[in-house]
Amino acid sequence: MVAIRLVLVMTFILILTFTLWFLENYFDPGGMLDHNDPTGVFSFIDAIYFTMVTVTTVGYGDIVPVSPLARMFDALFITPGRMFVWLIFIGTAYQFVYQQYREEWELKKLHKKLNNHIIICGYGMTGQAVVDELLNKKYDIDQLVVIENNEEFIRYAADNNITALLGNASKENILKKAAIEKAQTIIITTGRDDTNVLIGLSAKNLNPDISIISRANEIENKKLVRQSGADYIITPSITGGRLMVLAIKNKLSTKLLDDLLTSRYGVDVNEREVTMEEIGKKPKDILKIVVIEVNRGDTIYPASELDNVTLEKGDWLVFIEKVI
Questions:
Q1: Are 111 and 183 in contact (CB under 8 A)?
Q2: Which CATH number fits domain 115-234: 3.40.50.720, 1.10.10.10, 3.40.190.10, 1.25.40.10?
């Protein structure tokens, strides 16, 4: 925008310069008096000089209009041109101040509404799938913030009413704009493991209590991603490969797993703490869900042991339920 305005100003000044030079040399010779040039020749350089010093209000007075035509041109074209140029400069400065104020106001408004929110770093295919799945699970769209350094993806997120910030998520100032100190979870989905590690380190530095779910593109990098502070690491290539191999002979179970991975269709995997009414019961006695795991402190009871488990206060259930 600033470059366009500068080009507009320079083009306008050149038009004024050429018009003044053409008028002086072909219609009104001698109309402009140069006190430093007794020959009276008004060159194109003189026209540039006079236009520039007049428009910028310097006005040394060494070249002055003396004929009526030259004075009329100065009054009706050069002087309004000076006002036009200054309006552009003042408008540009005003736009900078207004834009900065507006960004600060929008950030304050954003920080005020965000609390225990989720930050998604990267809005490529994986990031978009994450946001879609969060919305399918009825997460509040106002508590989702996307950070992306691709302007096209930012526009796409904005078109879908997702709060999106343009910038590098590994930079602390960008994470602060996303109110990371109040965030519950950060999901890192970029296609570079080194970037994911940097984002994890920056996030943990700003919010040691935040839960980090990170993508690892190469299995040998999982250790580094873990050391950066990631609580959960997902390797899409490995997960996809295992599903493909499973689909060779186990088409029905593959479909079930596909349903479990997408809450929009079929069934979904969820978890919750046992209720007071469920204490003392067997997992199989709980209606409308299929319990596949019970977590009791550091002890995990898999599906094969659930017949011998009686639910206690503080137990957490991992279960399958039908998606409504």
A1: no
A2: 3.40.50.720
| pLDDT tens, residue by residue, 39-68 | 667 778 888 887 777 777 776 667 777 777
In the chain, the N- to C-terminal Cα span, in Å, equals: 50
Nearest to 51, CA basis, from 79, 26, 27: 79
Q: How many residues does the chain have?
A: 324
**What are the structure tokens assigned to 67, written together?**
């004929």
**Coil, helix or strand for 241?**
helix
Q: Give the SS3 label for residue 164.
A: strand
DSSP string computed for 89-131: HHHHHHHHHHHHHHHHHHHHHHHHH-SS-EEEE--SHHHHHHH
C-alpha span between 99 and 233 (Å, rounded)? 39
Strands 267-273 and 299-302: unpaired
Q: Give the CATH fold of the 2-109 domain.
A: Helix Hairpins (1.10.287)
- Summarised one tens digit per residue, pLDDT across range 217-244 is 888 899 999 999 999 998 887 877 877 8
- Rounded Cα gap, residues 63 and 82, in angstroms: 17
CATH topology of domain 267-324: Alpha-Beta Plaits (3.30.70)
Sign for the CA dihedral angle at 316, 138, 197, 243 comes to positive
**Are 163 and 146 within 8 A, CB to CB?**
yes
Distance of CA 99 to the CA centre of its chain: 17
Encoded tokens for 97:
């101040």
